[in-house]
Amino acid sequence: MSEVVGYEVRGRIAVVTVDNPPVNALGLPVREGLMAQIDRAAADDAVAAIVLIGAGRTFPAGADIREFDQPVVEPHLLSIVDHFDTVEKPIVAAVHGTALGGGLELVLGCHFRVAAPGARVGTPEVKLGIFPGAAGTQRLPRVAGLDHALELIVLGEPIGAAKALDYGIIDEIAEGDLLEAGIAFAEKILSEGTPRRISSEPREGIGSPDQFADILQKYRDLAGRRMRGQESPLEALGSVIDGLEMPYDQAVIADRARFPRCKDSDQSKALRYAFFAEREASKIPGVGKDISPKPVETGAVIGAGTMGGGIIMCFADSGIPVTAIETSQDALDRGLAMITKNYQGMVDRGRIDEAEMARRLGLISTSLDYSGAADADLVIEAAFEDLELKKTIFADLDAVAKSGAILATNTSYMDINQIAAATGRPSDVIGLHFFVPANVMKMLEVVRTDSSSPQALATGMRLARTFGKVGGLAGVSHGFVANRSRAPLVREANFLVEEGASPAQIDQVLREFGMPMGVLAVSDLSGLDVSWRMRKSLAHLRDPDERYFHLADRLCEMGRFGRKTGSGWYSYGEGGSLPVPDPEVEEIAAQVAAEQGIERRQIDDDEIRDRCLYAAVNEGAKIVEEGVALRASDIDIMWQYGFGFPKWRGGIMYHADRVGLPTVLARVEEFHAAHGKLWQPSALLRDLAGSGGSFTGT
Ligand code: 3H9
């Protein structure tokens, strides 16, 4: 009857099974099948109750996102959930895996709910620019109470079975086989004569918006902080408020008008693009499912400084024993003290308990020489950015690391081909480029050298997942994909200050665009000396005809390294962390401009935005054109997870597609004419603009 929704009768219980791999998404065939099989059970005299379950790895993980660009076809998920209210026989949801979005709405439509201990439930719709559109915003507050419901609906983070039980979203955590537990639960309610619970009916604890003003404000504030600039959390909140003001039937009618508005918004389209782009980023041609990653059961990290320390924490956080290797006991002690302090901070904020902190610290051992890496399945070098040093380290590692171990470098821009050539096993060498702070930022750039084996790359990509990160592939190139595509943005921000814009104006324009922090405030935070040192070390390679960072150099010469020295692009009060505009920077900029023959002028916000963003887009296009990135969408994912670029903007390449590539090209050509060769338009940009193509296929 339905190919994707099975029907079977066990004793007096009908078992309705959604079987639509990989995640049982609720596309049209599933919705039709569900309606038909539930009706079949309702009409079957031999059936007294129904258990609804998912086959394979999960209960339905939500609506089929791929259908969102097409017209809605009945039965709508809302019709199904509402239909469940009218079914006279008890329906028991048996939940495992991830019951998300429409999956959880289906669960809420069931009259009773049991879940496997590892199940997770949630309403991540806001992350796709929408809200739970099949009555989740009406039913969840009735089932879990307003506060808990808003936590799920507005913030979009899933919760585990234990919390779901606590919130009243599920009735029981099943021990043993889930289907058997679901059937046993159904038998129990039948024998006890428990009346069906209809989650659309009024419940105590739900009142008027005035009564809940504090809770509503709490989530408005949280959404503003965590998802700045994003509309969907406020739409979700609006839908919940409708439910407080209106009876269920009217509130779902209001939702029906609200939902298409969200779904068709630019933000939702960008967020859906980002969802699929993230999954695409993990796919590397030539590294298919037939290539098994090497197991990583032990790790070693060379260098326990800021970066190394963060990477050591990634291993420990994932339960993998790791050896920290340093050149002196002092450096080891400092590194471990920093790690301990970070974990203590997590304990203080209630993120982990003392026992967990002790467990993680217990996974970290130390060594003062490379013999500590002898047993490691994967070694990550996080030493200073000095090519000769790295080559020496890799030659030494080659002598001690066990055969088959993956040797990785965390360099952020160096030629890893040269580093790999320092070993007798270049096929086992890859780059693993972490972002700061390494234990927090979700991006991991996996760098392929000329000789990296598919298995080494597969291991790097798997490690990203193990660490809870998103892996993306890059080729060897100065700055790889992420930093190389961002560098022109930083460059233009620097030049714009020389030309007359203030750091505060530039940062404000970028923040208004949606970036979490202005680019110059970020430079101050990471330290201006870092790029100064790099510029000095690469001075011999500099093209004398190219415009140079005179102002940034001058600031560094004056000891203005950023926040750590109390001044940089901004000044910072005693121990202060907030950037304050500094008239001295204006004076220095004017001086440098005079020396360089740059005429200072008023610069409008549009020019600032276009120069910063299109410089990055043009570089991104060159990166794709050269094959350093596999796809333009990989750049977007790296910006989202590496630099906190707003997901609701999709990414710089997606943004360029929305603006229209002919418009972007015209601007790039204009800047090329005004500012010279750094703005040389990319051939790919020209081709696509000329042929009506796009970077991201959107
Ligand atoms: C919603 O429900 C709206 C409702 O309120 C009702 C409105 C009326 N649709 O992530 P993975 C694909 S909105 C289509 O690699 P994992 C995915 O693209 C939805 N496809 O696996 C990938 O395909 P491929 C609310 C989907 O184990 C494959 O499945 N729900 C969907 O790392 C495997 O995915 C969500 O937002 C989908 N809904 O993670 C949940 N989900 O192999 C979205 C996945 O071709 N999904 N695919 O690349 C997730 O968060 C994760 O996929 C999940 C599994 C945690 C389920």
Write the layout of secondary structure elements.
Layout: E1 5-10, E2 13-18, H1 28-43, E3 49-54, H2 77-86, E4 91-95, E5 98-100, H3 102-109, E6 112-115, E7 120-122, H4 136-144, H5 146-155, E8 159-160, H6 161-166, E9 172-173, H7 178-192, H8 213-226, H9 232-245, H10 248-263, H11 266-281, E10 299-302, H12 306-317, E11 322-325, H13 329-348, H14 354-362, E12 364-367, E13 378-381, H15 387-400, E14 406-409, H16 416-421, E15 429-434, E16 443-448, H17 454-466, E17 470-475, H18 482-499, H19 503-513, H20 519-526, H21 528-537, H22 550-557, H23 583-596, H24 605-625, H25 632-643, H26 652-659, H27 661-675, H28 683-691
Parallel strand pairs: 2-3, 3-4, 4-6, 5-7, 6-9, 10-11, 10-13, 11-12, 13-14, 14-15, 16-17
Antiparallel strand pairs: 1-2, 7-8, 15-16
